[in-house]
Structure formats: C-alpha cells, structure tokens
Amino acid sequence: MNETNNSLAAREVAWWLHPIAIFIGLNGLTGAAAFLADSKIYMELWRTPKYFTEFTALVTVGVIILFSVGARLGTGGHTNYSSEFEWRGAVSFTRALTLFKLSFWLCMMAYAVWIALGVSRGLSIGVLKQIFTGGADVITLRTYLETVPGVTTCTQFGIAAVVLGSIIGSSVGWRLVRGKLVVLFLFALVRALLYSERLAFLELAIPLLVLYFAEPVSWTRRRWLRALVRIAPLAGAVFVYIVFTSFEYFRSWSSYYSARESNLLEFGFWRLLGYYVTSANNSAYLITRIPDSLNAPYFSLHFLWEFPGLNLYVKDLFHWVNFDYNGYMNLLAAGANPEFNNPGGLLSPVVDFGVLGGLAYWGIMGLLTGYLYRLYMINHPLGMCIYPVAFLTLTEIPRYLFWGEGRAFPALAYLLLSALLMVRSATYFESFTQAKLQADRTPLTNC
C-alpha cells in the first residue's frame, strides 16, 4: 500500500503528465503566438504570409475546450486513484521481458540493414568527418541513408522496446534492461545528430520520462525535488531550446545560416519558435486552400497512405484525394514557405473533416486519451504501454499528429499486442515480489 501511494504521489506531483495540462499549455501558447504575431514578423523571420486569423483562433479555442471536456470524462473525473485497482500483479514479468528483447532486436536488425545499405551507396568515415567539420551539409547524409519502406520503419520498434524496458525497470529493477536501453538511446542520438532527425531521440526520451514517474520513488518527500518536478515544463522548454540549437548548428547553421546570421543563440530561438508558429499557420493556410475539407483522414491517419499494399486500397477508397508529399510541398510553395513544412496537428482534422468533424475528432481523442491516462495512473498494462506514446503525441500536436504517422504505427501496434499478451489470469493481489527476487538473482550476462 505504501508503495502504491508513493507511486501515485510521484505522478500527482508531475501534474503536467495530465493530458489536459499538456494539451492546453502547448496548443494554447502556440495558438496565441500564431495569432498575436504581426504579419511583418511572419515575412521577416519565416518568409511566409500570415493566415492565422480570428476564425482559426476561435476554432483553436473550440478544439481545446472539446478535447479538455472529453479528457475529463475519460478520466472519470477522478483526481485520486484508489489502490484497489492495482494491476501490477496481473502482468507477466517473463512475457514482458521476452517482448522487450524481441522489440530490441527487431530495431537493431533494422539499423544494421539500413547502415549496410548506406555503406553500399558510398557512406564512409570520410563523409561523416566532412559533416562534423562543416565541409558538407548534414542533409547530404540522406543521399546515403535514404529510407527504405519496411526496413527503416522497423527501427521504430525502438519506441516499444523503451516503453517495455521502462515498465520492467520501474517495476522490478533496471538491471535487466539498462544495457539495451543505453544502446537504443545511443543509436537515436547519432540518428538525431547525423540524420537531422531530432524526433528520433525525443520519441525515446519522452516515454521513458513518463514511465519513470510510474516508479515508486523517495524524492516525493523532499520539498526541493517536488518543487523542481512541478516546474519541469519550464526546465524542459530550456532543455528543448538547448538541444534544438545544438542540432541546428550541424543541420543548417554551420553550412548556410552562419554567413547570414550573427548570433547562433538568437537564431536558434526564432527558428524553434518558427517551427511551432508556422505549423499552426500552415494549417490555417490549408483550410483556406481546401475550404470544403478533404473528407478523408489524410493528415489524421496519414500512415494509411504510406502502408505498403494497404495504401493502394486506401487511395482507391478515397480516390478524390489527389494529394501526396510532392503535392503538399507544391501547395506550400505556392503560398507559404516549404522550408517550414509541418502541417500542424491541432487543426489538421479540420482540414480532413471540416470544422464540425474536427471538433468531434478532438472530443473523441480527448475521451480516449483521458481513459488511457486513468489506466496509466492505476498501472493497467494498456495504460502503461499506450499512454507514453499518447503523451508523446500530445507534445508534438502543435507541429503534427504523431499517432497518425507511419513511424508511430509499428510501436503502437506492438505495444497494444504486448499489453494483451502481458496480462495473465493471475489474481489482482499477486505482487511483483517474486519477479523482483528473480531479477536480483539473474546474472548480469542476461542483460
């Protein structure tokens, strides 16, 4: 009982893990910045006209309200969660460990094949040295590491591995999973730095953070640590700015913008802000260019248009949607700035289904996300597996809908299957004590 209470206390201190808090905070600030920024700022800093008007601001407010109401209903209106719903004893530790190892090796095999293909195309140490020294643009690396459908997608099993590894670590100890988690994060860091894909690191770090707060910890008794966790969003914003600017140095500053701009830190701030503001502005632009909506889940479930085999059926089903990546980029080039090409996630369902359809979409998503948060709070396997990815999506909504992208599908499908497989017909009162003892007796060679 004490362990459960301590665990819940840790999550309640991290108030920003609640879907309503993160949704209102990020989208409210982004919408306000997009609306208040003068049209001259848009043109001078981001070289795009301003499309975010009073209408799109009102729709944004409506979306935030509908999502919040849905999430409130999904959580059941509870602020405290009783320990009588404790599910940890109903999870099979052995199955969780097997599923973790399988997802880890699927990810590693995909990376191995991807790197081998890059080497066959001419990737070498010399090329990497040129990128680090500024002799070549980091974007040129994409010519060697061009994505391969089905292969590069399998690297996304790393998300599932981090989630499952974190569940095991927070429940019975990190010793069995620590080594593999470190390897996953090293690969993601290199990918973020060299492949100019910052999300590759964040999509591992954020689920790990969410599940860390599922672990019963002693810091909740220390005032200064509780205070630090409560202001974590502010510290996180500073951290994101530092990481973003560091990556941007290799991505665009050293090879292009250093000759035009005088201050890297100022450049990093305005460019980071630009990614969020122009995403909302791009959504507003699409609404003006597609006033009758697409009447199809193109942005909401974009992975359907990319899934091998299935995409042919989807394109035939929604045959009136003559839209693809090139068409989207051409549309941006006609009236916005394709350099800032994120479509925005908050208003994308409005582009897909119209205003009423978009509002309904976010009401349903709020209900679903709130329910997943409730399951997460009581350690239900489904909540523990899926809510970290849902929370990751909530952090990315100002830019795009992560849960509807092809890179999210493998992890979500694997984690949903894992949640079903991990639950066994054990009594709810069975504790993890035996599993923890087994982990303590397991030699380090099994890591």
Could you describe the 3D structure shown?
The protein is mainly alpha-helical and 447 residues long. The protein has one domain. 65% of the residues lie in helices and 0% in strands. The protein has helices spanning 2-13, 19-36, 39-46, 54-74, 93-120, 125-132, 141-144, 157-172, 178-194, 199-212, 223-230, 232-253, 264-289, 310-317, 325-335, 348-377, 381-396, 409-422, 433-441. It starts with a helix and ends in a 6-residue tail after the last helix.
Task: Give the helix/strand layout.
Layout: H1 2-13, H2 19-36, H3 39-46, H4 54-74, H5 93-120, H6 125-132, H7 141-144, H8 157-172, H9 178-194, H10 199-212, H11 223-230, H12 232-253, H13 264-289, H14 310-317, H15 325-335, H16 348-377, H17 381-396, H18 409-422, H19 433-441
Name the overall outline: globular
Please state roughly what percent of the residues sit in beta strands, choosing from under 5%, 5-15%, 15-25%, 25-35%, 35-45% or over 45%: under 5%
Order of helices and strands: HHHHHHHHHHHHHHHHHHH
Treating each run of at least 4 consecutive H or I residues as one helix, how many helices?
19
Give the overall pLDDT as a whole number. Answer: 82
Low-confidence stretches: 1-7, 425-437
Helix fraction bin: 55-70%
Largest sheet: none
Distance between the termini: 30 Å
- Rg calc: 22 Å
Q: Which class do the helix and strand fractions yield?
A: mainly alpha
- Count the beta strands: 0
As for the number of domains, it is 1
